[in-house]
Specification:
The chain is an alpha+beta fold. The protein has one domain (about 20-95). It is about 45% helix and about 10% strand. The protein contains 3 helices and 2 strands, in the order H-H-H-E-E. A two-stranded antiparallel sheet has the order 1-2. A hairpin with a 4-residue loop joins strand 1 (about 80-85) and strand 2 (about 90-95). Helix 2 (about 30-50) packs antiparallel against helix 3 (about 55-70).
Length: about 100
């Protein structure tokens, strides 16, 4: 199978490391997907360590990794506006809101 790229929308295609995407000018949804995947993998690593009855020090490190990834500074909500004619988007950081039940 081959991929057909719309030349009007994309000037080039390339592969990127996930850290490059997080540090670069990429769509916020793509960045959030990478962060969510990292949190999921950290949770799975901790669950595996628990299932394998690994030492407490290992569990503590997995827990620290999970907490750090879950609370990372990039968890701030964003608002994205897309200009369809210009094929550009702008991003503004939002405020954290507390919701009550």
């Amino acid at each position: 199978a081959s991929i057909v790229i719309d030349e009007k929308e994309y000037t080039s295609t390339d592969w990127f490391e996930s850290d490059e995407i997080l540090a670069g000018e990429f769509h916020p949804a793509l960045k959030q997907a990478i962060r969510d995947l990292r949190v999921k993998k950290a949770y799975e690593a901790m669950a595996t360590a628990i299932a394998e009855d690994r030492p407490d020090a290992d569990l503590a490190q997995h827990a620290k990794d999970l907490v750090w990834l879950s609370g990372h500074r990039h968890r701030t909500p964003v608002q994205v506006q897309f200009d369809a004619e210009a094929h550009k988007y702008t991003v503004a950081e939002g405020e954290r809101r507390q919701y009550s039940k």
